[in-house]
Amino acid sequence: MTATETTLDPLVKRIFLGFGFSALGSGLTMPFLYVYLSEVRGIPTATVGLLFAFMGLLGFLSAPVAGSLIDRFGPRPVMMAGLFVEALSVYSIGHVSTVPQAFAVATVMTVAQVGIWPASTAMLTRLIPESQRQRVYGIQFMLLNAGLGVGGVISALIIDTRSVESFQRLYLLDGLSYAGYIVVLLTLPAATGALVRTEETDASLEQPSWRLVLRDTVLLRVIGLSILAVTFGYAQFEAGFAAYTVDVADIPARALGLAYAANTGAIVVGQMITLRLIGGRRRSSLLALCTAIWAVSWVVIVASDAVDGWVAIAAIVLGLGLFGVGETLWAPIAPAIVNDLAREDMRGRYNALSGMTWTVATIIGPAFAGLLIGHGHGHIWAVTVIVGMLAASALFWRLRAHLTDAQDGLGLESPAETSPTPVA
């Protein structure tokens, strides 16, 4: 790997610093929102589930607006506004005591956060040449998982389900982490990541619109395959995986922490290794490999029901570790394909639509897992997620027929031939 490849723009490094703050804050609270609302605040479990579904639906409906705002005003203003509102709303979670308050705060928080990830992706994309996109997306994902892991360890030392104040301190720290990200963004030049008018974005082109985005059949194919993969992959993490291992395989709930730790460790340790191996290889083939690895990981996890004791625990630890290996392929490649398809002045819309992949999948996936496992059909769930992953692998392999060689990642081993996208 050449010096050209390994040297990142100082502004990108600064953005990573801010992103690290927010990832750490998310790690403090993300695993405990359900516990806090149901066990600490006494909100009925069914109502909390309804609240989560409401947040998913609201995020889905808000994403198109966020994408349009990013393209209209640029990623930096959208990020700063979203982070400011989210910092306040996250802090407010620690002080909700009724169902209407919980829904009100969740509404504000969901609307605030829906544009942050697509805006940050658009900003990073405009600061780096095409040859570095996969690497930067991979580092971003690694930082996210490192922050979540460290935050989870810290929060485990702070929280006490008998103490509302312990959770209030947790949500205060989370809010301050977003404030740290805002401070970093304030140190960036005002036009960082803003669109510069070029031949590609002059007035002769059709004006940016969602109609143009939805006419991109290749993009829609990528989004459809991504929904399939995430529905039977990521979306099964909290609901399907936990329900199957505890209720079907009879593994102690405390052992799940070891499996999640293995997953995070595989990502943090393996991401930089993976980034060195994927340069210049077909992205469609790598996504097919990723989803095939996920299929194998589910096979290993499902096998925990056939054994007992530490062997069963080892199976789920190994399974989620393997899943993490697949994630190190998915994280840099999936957004790179979307951003190589995007027209420069519609990058916000393209990334917002890509983000909606997660919203749709995380609504369908847990509902599907709960329906099957909750009604005693755990093994049907197991077969379905494995077959779903294998189907996604086969379809990603065929995706190469719909991508140009550049969109499929060929030629990225020569970054010197690729100039950075113009930015203000």
Which key features would you list for this structure?
424 residues, mainly alpha, 17 helices, disordered N terminus
Brief sketch in words of this structure:
The chain has 17 helices and no strands.
- Helix percentage range: over 70%
Strand content: under 5%
Tally of DSSP helical segments: 17
- Structural classification: mainly alpha
Termini gap: 28 Å
List SSEs in N-to-C order.
Answer: HHHHHHHHHHHHHHHHH
- Rg over CA atoms, rounded to whole Å, is 21 Å
Largest sheet: none
Principal-axis shape equals: globular
Low-confidence stretches: 1-5, 414-424
Number of strands: 0
Can you walk through the features of this model?
With 424 residues, the chain is mainly α. Helix content is 74%, strand content 0%. The protein is built from 17 helices and no strands. Helix 4 (45-73) packs antiparallel against helix 16, helix 5 (75-93) runs antiparallel to helix 9 (164-186) and helix 12 runs parallel beside helix 16. The longest helix has 33 residues, at 309-341. 50% of the residues are buried.
Please render the helix and strand layout as text.
Elements: H1 3-6, H2 10-29, H3 33-40, H4 45-73, H5 75-93, H6 99-113, H7 116-127, H8 133-158, H9 164-186, H10 210-214, H11 217-231, H12 237-248, H13 256-278, H14 283-302, H15 309-341, H16 347-374, H17 378-398
Helix pairs in contact: 2-8, 2-9, 4-5, 4-6, 4-16, 5-6, 5-7, 5-9, 7-16, 8-13, 8-15, 11-15, 11-16, 11-17, 12-16, 13-15, 14-15, 14-17, 15-16, 16-17
